[in-house]
Structures are given as C-alpha cells and as structure tokens.
Amino acid sequence: MTARAVVTGIGVVAPSGVGADAHWRTVLAGTRRTGPITLFDPAGYPTRHGGQVPDFTADSYADSRQLVQTDRWTHLGFAATRLALADAGLPERAPDPYGYAVTLASSSGGNLFGQRELQRLWGGSSRTVGAYQSIAWFYAASVGQLSIHHQFKGPSGVLVAETAGGLDSLAHAARAVRRGTPVVIAGATECPLSPYALACQLRSGLLTDVADPQRAYRPFDTSASGYLPAEGGAVFVVEELGHALSRGARIYGEVSGWGSTHDAAHTTEDSAGDVGQYARAMRLALDRAGVAAARIDVVLPDALGVPRYDRSEAEALRAVFADRPPPVTTQKPLTGRAHQGGSALDVATALLAFAHDTLPASAGPDEVADGCELDFLREHRRPRSRLALVCARGFDGFNSALVLRGAAPTRGETP
Amino acid sequence: MTGRRTVVTGVGVVAPGGASRDRFWKTITEGRTATRRISFFDPSPFRSQIAAECDFDPVAAGLTDAERRRADRYVQFALACSAEAVADAGLVLSDAERDRAGVVLGTAVGGTMALEQEYVTVSDQGRRWLVDAARGGPYLYQALVPSSLAADVACRHGLHGPAQVVSTGCTSGIDAIGYAHQLIVDGEADVVLAGAADSPISPVTVASFDAIKATSPDNDDPAHASRPFDADRHGFVLAEGAAVLVLEEAGRARRRGAHVYCEVAGYASRSNGYHMTGLRPDGLEMGLAVTDALRQGRIAPEQVSYISAHGSGTRQNDRHETAAFKRALGEAAYRVPISSIKSMVGHSLGAIGSIEMAACALAIEFGVVPPTANWSTRDPECDLDYVPNEAREVPVDVALSVGSGFGGFQSAMVFRRRPAAVVG
C-alpha cells in the first residue's frame, strides 16, 4: 500500500496577508494588494509596483540572532513555517527529528542580503564581506535555518524551477512521504525585491510597466501587459495520512498527482511556451491521481499576464479538457507573482477553497482576450468534486502541475 | 514500478587539471594537484588567494555562439559535461523517449560569477544602491535564477522530461543524482542527465569564506594547500567544475546494449539540525545517511571497497566524517581505502559531489582508487586508511561517497558494479 500524502497545515506570508485566514479574506473580497514598492525607492525603474507582505514583523517569528544572520526571504520562511506548524497542531520542535524534513523551493535566494554585502565589498573601503554572507544568501539558507530551529533532521532539500518549483516542492514532499518520512515541510517563500534583483527581473522582458497597480498585471485580459513582481509565498505541512489520522489532525486535502515537463526551449521575445508539453504535465498529474479530466472542479492557472503565454495556457487547458475546461480562477493579480512562492500560494488558495466550501471568483479578466476564452469563475461557487488542478510554468521552459483532492469542508461559512 | 533500478551509462567531467573525463581521471590517479594562485582576478586583497581553476575553452568544448553568450560559466561547464556524457553513453533518443528523459542538476551558488560581474557595472563599482537596470546585460535574469542550469541542458539535448535544479549547498551534487535516481525508480523518467556545476571563483565568494576563515591561507604553496586528513591542514581550497552522469533505467540500458559503469545502489540524506557551519564531532547524521544508503542496496559494511570522502581539509570536517565512517561501518571502516580528491581538484561547492560520483564510477570501471594528495603528517584523530599520495590498484565493487554542507546537510550515495550475469 503506497503511503498517501496529505496537507495538514498551511502557513501564508504574502501580500494578501499574514496567515491563511488573512489570505482567504483577501481572496474572498477580491482586493488587489499590489502597490508601490517601498522596500527601496523604485523611482528609477520602469516597474515601480509589486506585492509586498503588509505589516510584516519578522521579530514575531525569529529571534534577533536568527534575523541578523538571514535575508528577508528567510524571515518570511521562518514565519510561514511557524504558521504552518501551528495550523497543523504540531510543536515548534520536531518530536521525532528524523521523521521530519523540509524541502522548499527558492529561485532568488538571499538577494537583498547579498546586495548589501556586494556593496560593502565593491563600494566600501576594505575588500571584505560580513561573517554571515556565506550562510545568508545561498539558496539553501532558509532550509538550513529551519532544519536547525525546528529540528527537522530527515531528508531535506531545495528545488529550483523558476516559478514552477513551488509545485515541485510539494511533489517532492509527497515522494519523501512515500519513502517513509512521515512529515515534510514544503512550499516556498521568495523576496526578489532588492534593487538588484528587480533589475535582473526586468531583463526577463515579462514585467509590466503599467503605472496604475489596479490596471497592471491582468492575465487573460485584453489589457494584459506583463506581471508585477511580489514577495512571500506559502509553506505547508505535508504528512503521511496514517500519521495525520493517528494524531487527529485536520486534513485539508491530499497531494494526489503531480507532473513536470520541460519545453526544451528558452523563453524569448517571441516564445509562448510549448502547449503540448504544458498539457502533458497536466495529464501526468491527472494520471498519477487517477482522476479523469472531466472530474476536475477548478483550475488555478499560471496566469503569467503576458498575452502570448496567456493564450498558450488557455490552449493547453482546452487540449487537456477536450474543449470543455472546468471553471478557472486566478488570484495572482491580487498579490503579484512571487515566483516559486506564488505557485505555492495557489496551492494554499485551492486547499482553503475546499476547507471553506467555496471556489473563489477569479480576479479577472474583465475583458477576455482573444484566444483566452475559458470558464473564468465570475462569482463564488460551491465545490462539487473537490478536485483542483494547480498549474505553473517557469522561465525558460519549465511546466508543472499538481492535482489536489480536497477534504470535506472544515470551516462552514457560506459563499 | 517496484523493481526498477538505475545504472550509470555515461560520464562527463570538467574539472581543474583537465576539462574531460579522461584528463580528470589521469589527474587524480596520478596524484597531481590542480590548485594554484587565483588567475581570474587579482586576489592580493584577500586572505585566501588560491583556488583550483579549470582551464576551460568553451569553443573547444563545442558550445555554440548562442550558448556562450547566454550561459554563465557554470552552465557552460554543464553543457560541456552533458555533451560528453551523452556521447559516452551512446545515447540516442526517439521523440517519445525524450518525453521520459529529464535533467536534474545541482548547484550551490548558481550564477554568482555573472551576478557579481554585472553588479559591478550596474552599481557603478558599488557606489549605487539603486542600480542602473538599463546597464545590465541581456541575460541578467538567467543569472539570477539557477534554474537556467537545468533549462539550458534540457534545451541542448531536447529533453522534455522533468527538469529541476537542486540547491542544497555543498551536497547539491550528490542530492541531484539522488533525486534523479528516485525519478527513475519511481517510473517518472527512464533517462536523466544528472550532476552538478559551480563556478564560484569570484571576489564575493572568496571574501565570504575569508570572513569565516574556512579556506586555506597557504598562499605561498598553492599546490600543497588542500590537505585533507593531514594534521597540518588549514582549510579548504575553493574550486570550480562540473560533472554530469547519464542515469538510465537498467532494463533500458540492457536492451540497447549500453556500456554500464555501475548501478546506483542507494542514496540517503539527513540534516544535523545543529549549526549552519558547525559539525558535531560524533558524525551522527552522516553516519545515519551512510547506513540508510547501504541498507537500500542491501550492502554490508565489509562489502564497501572504496569511500570517496567529503575530505574538505578542515579539522572539524575530517574528525566529523572519520567518526561517521566508524559509526556506520564499525570495524570495516579501518580496512576500507578512503580518499579525498579535493586534495587535488579542490572544493567546487555544489559541483564536487557529482565530480566525486564520477570518480566513483571510474574507480569501479578501472579498478583504481585515487589517492589523498598532500598527505604527510598523521593526525591522531584521523586514524583510517586515507590512501596517501599514490593511487591504489584494487578491485572496486562498491563505492560509497559522502557530502557535507553548510546548513547541516549530510548525504551519502553508493555505486555498485553490476554483476556480470546481469550486464550480459
């Protein structure tokens, strides 16, 4: 009997709010939380808006020694992990260290910390950096710190597949559960909003330069112009089903299927992604879950907000769902795209939708662009089959999909 | 999908001392060191001024103009290695097979070199906090996200299976091969190009390790600066490099009559949950990883013929892993030859784990164990057989390799010679 991996805890630290409840309230209200970037003065940049975590108090989640050694990206990770553990009813320190592991995705590392140290090295009077640079900026910094603080001593990891990696981390967690680690922390946070990291992102050519945050980042819309960057993400407690049941844990849903493919082609000015390979990732996830496409209740798409990619995503969905795609809802315009953290956040949204017995209305499009015709949820609706397909693509050809099987509702509000 | 096994059918290496599999093997089995004074920039302001650099010619390695423009140095290494490994394996894939052929590559610090070079420009030599984005190069985003490593290799070989970068610091190279092995065992892929690449020899990395005195300051004698298990060691020597292995489902390799170097018998990792840079002297978690990897391959400690040590050349590491080997192997730890090729090719962070797995595959292939170079003074705390200075001809049926990294990650992998009956 193959072990089954279920989600028992959700920790959200995102522009939509700190905590799963705050995120869900933002989603239900459909409030755009993108705004002017205040982490630095972006006046000289063509993209000056983004999604920042509101009122984030890092010292509520880590002590001063931990904070000084780490980047803001790791601070967000400390917070999301604590929230997920508390939500799952698990203690701060793993009771069985080798039975707990942590696998997060990160594609921008500790770039803010890194830029400060680069400035010191190149702009300062001595050719030195601080003692913590070597442990703060590399991509494994958050996982290392979390493993030490929470005593997660099982097989841990760090994955990168640009935006798609947030989903890959949950797939990897499910594999680890099947291999015998009962509890795996998965998901992603990111903070690519240092001056230098934003400069790097601008070179992707996919960011919007529309100045009005309410009009920027409008996936599938006739006015789509690219995306707004964001920080934050979501972290989950992924747990072996029997382990969760034996301790009476609340179960959000099961990580039932996953699939990853690659376009074997780069992202360029003209590229739109490989429809066939993207569709194949979705089919792999459905097949692994043993779910017929027609049974899917809701799709959370990648929603890049770049017209040619929006069209190809709609085309891939029509291919998988035989021209009758299920309702589609995207909440990414509310927060901006937090890269790997953003795809993890979509997983949180899907699981919370089942917990609250409400599929949330999509944040746009208002005017559907040609070729993007899908059944966008125009108002909140009750779930039926409680099966969600979450999709994500990553710069330079990554495609990932996840099938989540929602548990019965636990939070009984009506839509 | 139970019963699926993973074999190694191709090996590609770019390492200091030789940018090819054959030159790498010659370097390490001759006991030659490739550590030298840093030539990429003026290292004189830094505490440690030495490194193991690759003499790498991207044109000779067959990289296209577009690849050379786009790819940072570590990605170029991976492109060269993957081409060598694919050719070595004689790998030819149909369109349908490409859908089940993936890429899993590790890197500890990714595009650091390009990011630092570009930073100097866009920040006007560190004078501007609000950098001038317009002065950045066209591939700045590719430098920021290390997923570029897997993407570029997938693009070169037209692979549509799962593509991923693993970035667990200095165990990235073992972990990437381990994840690739799991994808094959689980039936998610039939072929995976797996390995790792890093090119960290850049002022910011050198300064980072200076700040914590992790690297050797033996600037007067670079050739003898990397001294794992020697009582007179003073830290590791930074390096660059890459290795890529072709991992293949065993039945597929057998059906096409591929040459099989060895089988992936086991892979495991644990975290010490102790300290970002410190190691517990008892080697507990590394020992647990070794035990788990051996268990997967149903291999007894006495059957291990060679251990490729992490052997970074810091006192705490050498004690830590010596303890771990004793903990996991018991009395057998005293009889098995153990060596650290970091004594010759330095410590290329995430890449070295894959380079060491390449060395294990070649040790099994040729029946030779590479030495620990620069070994002259016995450390009473390190009392095992570290194969000092000269390679040893010995049949290698089971090779174990371990890695240890910042963040507390401890990984172990076991390669095993395929029984003749199975290969035939």
From TrEMBL, chain A:
<feature type="domain" description="Ketosynthase family 3 (KS3)">
    <location>
        <begin position="2"/>
        <end position="406"/>
    </location>
</feature>
<dbReference type="InterPro" id="IPR014031">
    <property type="entry name" value="Ketoacyl_synth_C"/>
</dbReference>
<dbReference type="Pfam" id="PF00109">
    <property type="entry name" value="ketoacyl-synt"/>
</dbReference>
<dbReference type="InterPro" id="IPR000794">
    <property type="entry name" value="Beta-ketoacyl_synthase"/>
</dbReference>
<dbReference type="InterPro" id="IPR014030">
    <property type="entry name" value="Ketoacyl_synth_N"/>
</dbReference>
<dbReference type="InterPro" id="IPR020841">
    <property type="entry name" value="PKS_Beta-ketoAc_synthase_dom"/>
</dbReference>
<dbReference type="InterPro" id="IPR016039">
    <property type="entry name" value="Thiolase-like"/>
</dbReference>
<protein>
    <submittedName>
        <fullName>Ketosynthase chain-length factor</fullName>
    </submittedName>
</protein>
<dbReference type="Pfam" id="PF02801">
    <property type="entry name" value="Ketoacyl-synt_C"/>
</dbReference>
<keyword id="KW-0808">Transferase</keyword>
<comment type="similarity">
    <text>Belongs to the thiolase-like superfamily. Beta-ketoacyl-ACP synthases family.</text>
</comment>
<keyword id="KW-0012">Acyltransferase</keyword>
TrEMBL record, chain B:
<dbReference type="InterPro" id="IPR014030">
    <property type="entry name" value="Ketoacyl_synth_N"/>
</dbReference>
<dbReference type="InterPro" id="IPR000794">
    <property type="entry name" value="Beta-ketoacyl_synthase"/>
</dbReference>
<dbReference type="InterPro" id="IPR020841">
    <property type="entry name" value="PKS_Beta-ketoAc_synthase_dom"/>
</dbReference>
<dbReference type="InterPro" id="IPR014031">
    <property type="entry name" value="Ketoacyl_synth_C"/>
</dbReference>
<dbReference type="InterPro" id="IPR018201">
    <property type="entry name" value="Ketoacyl_synth_AS"/>
</dbReference>
<keyword id="KW-0808">Transferase</keyword>
<dbReference type="Pfam" id="PF00109">
    <property type="entry name" value="ketoacyl-synt"/>
</dbReference>
<comment type="similarity">
    <text>Belongs to the thiolase-like superfamily. Beta-ketoacyl-ACP synthases family.</text>
</comment>
<feature type="domain" description="Ketosynthase family 3 (KS3)">
    <location>
        <begin position="3"/>
        <end position="417"/>
    </location>
</feature>
<dbReference type="Pfam" id="PF02801">
    <property type="entry name" value="Ketoacyl-synt_C"/>
</dbReference>
<dbReference type="InterPro" id="IPR016039">
    <property type="entry name" value="Thiolase-like"/>
</dbReference>
<protein>
    <submittedName>
        <fullName>Beta-ketoacyl-[acyl-carrier-protein] synthase family protein</fullName>
    </submittedName>
</protein>
